[in-house]
Write a structure and sequence with these properties.
Structural class: mainly alpha
Radius of gyration: 20 Å
Oligomer: single chain
Order of helices and strands: EEEHEHHHHHHHHH
Number of helices: 10
Strand content: 5-15%
Shape: flat
Low-confidence stretches: 19-24
Strand order of the largest sheet: 1-3
Mean pLDDT: 81
Length: 226
């Protein structure tokens, strides 16, 4: 690692108390996260430091199934409950490391993209947010912003922590949820507004994310506001 770590969205930085992090190179335009500090006892200090020894005292967790589930759940929680959830999951990770139930994978550092490339991908993201109702493909977006499709896919994932298509789906569903709560538009109208040509496809995607149908979600919001 050489004391130089790069962090992307949805990364987890794990380091021992004896390790000094000299530089955080953030590939995103800003940093938002939680720092959970655990005072390791004699029973935990040894196993944790041993687990981190091959990584010179620190490592970045990226793209693990456990980690994906963590952030999916975290992003659905109200802001006031997110901190407690992070503490809970940090303790769970600490327990797994100490009990041998989890081994740290070697995570390759991301490819370097220069400021021009990052700015171009940021413009792609802003364009996507402004045109959620339109049909978009990676080749078309890459052509519009004069990027190669491969660079767009890889750099976008580094900057935003997930692939283009899943990020777009998330933002479409978040906008749909907002419209269900703030307007009287029909489910068909909302589906069309956020880029779904089929109500059934929209309903399936919405239920997968929010664990209820669009109408159930709207009724739940109405009940809360009574």
């Amino acid at each position: 690692m050489g004391g130089d770590l790069r962090l992307c969205k949805r990364d987890i930085l794990l380091f021992s108390s004896t390790h000094t992090i000299q530089t955080f190179r953030l590939l995103s335009s800003g940093f938002l996260g939680y720092l959970v500090q655990a005072d390791a006892s004699d029973d935990t200090a040894g196993p944790v430091q041993q687990a981190l020894t091959p990584f010179q005292g620190a490592t970045v967790l990226r793209g693990l199934s456990w980690q994906t589930s963590l952030f999916d759940a975290l992003e659905r929680l109200p802001a006031m409950r997110q901190q407690a959830y992070c503490i809970l999951k940090a303790n769970e990770l600490l327990y797994l490391l100490c009990s041998g139930g989890f081994s740290l994978p070697q995570v390759a550092q991301p490819t370097y993209y220069d400021a021009y490339q990052q700015e171009a991908v940021h413009r792609v993201e802003q364009y996507m947010l402004a045109h959620l109702g339109e049909h978009m493909t990676i080749p078309a977006l890459a052509h519009k912003f004069r990027l190669s499709p491969t660079l767009l896919k890889n750099c976008f994932r580094q900057l935003y922590g997930e692939p283009v298509h899943s990020y777009l789906r998330t933002k479409r569903l978040e906008k749909a949820a907002g419209l269900l709560g703030s307007t009287s538009l029909s489910v068909l109208q909302i589906a069309s507004t956020v880029g779904y040509s089929s109500v059934s496809q929209f309903g399936a995607a919405f239920r997968q994310r929010y664990h209820m149908t669009p109408m159930q979600y709207r009724r739940a919001l109405q009940y809360e506001n009574v």
